[in-house]
Amino acid sequence: MAAVEKKVSPYLYRIVKFEHVVEILNGSLHFSHPSKWDDPYETRVKNSRDYAMFAQCWTRKAISDAMWRIYSPDHLGVRIRTTREKLTFAMKDFARRNKGYKLRLANVQYDTTVKVREKTLELAKSLEDTLKPQFAADLLFHKRNAFSHEREVRAVIFCPTIDPDAKKDGIKIDIDGHELIESIFFDPRAADVLVEALKNYLKNVMDFSGDMRKSSLYSKPQEIIIDETL
User: Fold this and answer.
1) What is the distance in angstroms between the CA of the first residue and the CA of the last residue of the chain?
2) Which uninterrupted H or E stretch holds 198?
3) Domain coordinates of the chain in residue numbers?
4) 192, 193, 196, 202 alpha-carbon torsion, rounded to 10°
5) What confidence tens digit (pLDDT) does each residue in 138-152 have?
């Protein structure tokens, strides 16, 4: 019997602060410089144009207790959903209107620390020999197994003509946020009254028409009563 091919979901998810959702709906998508991230392996390789690489992290995992706890420690985070196709279109549309930008959207590959170190050295040698930005971008798609719970997908933008000082604050690209975001889920631990207030703001002030709800991750299931008299 032939093996059943597993369907790959097109959806991408990201847990962000509420104000960042408002920023996206207002048409601005932020990309950080890797030096702002906690993992020191992200910027292990130094080169003359490393100031020009910016990235954004998404996940393929729709439901994750760990992701809520890491990225919404104050219970005020929200999870946005888009698709690879929509994010790719938003990036390409920006690059079409702003010459000089190179783009990539791909899954992060996870491996042992030893393997990641070996791959880093290999890519660093390729970068040294050719100075091609593709090898600098490759460095952002290899992470240690300790981060594999994130099931990460990274969107990377490279622009060699950008001001080197820009890496301090990252860059913002203008996009159609209402087209990009399909749904918004609120932290499962957030107070219901707060969720309703935020939903009203997004609907009535931001004109967001997509699906909005509180995550049901911690919703209490129906109790199973054991009748000990039987």
Assistant:
1) 47
2) helix 192-204
3) 11-214
4) -110
5) 999 999 999 999 999
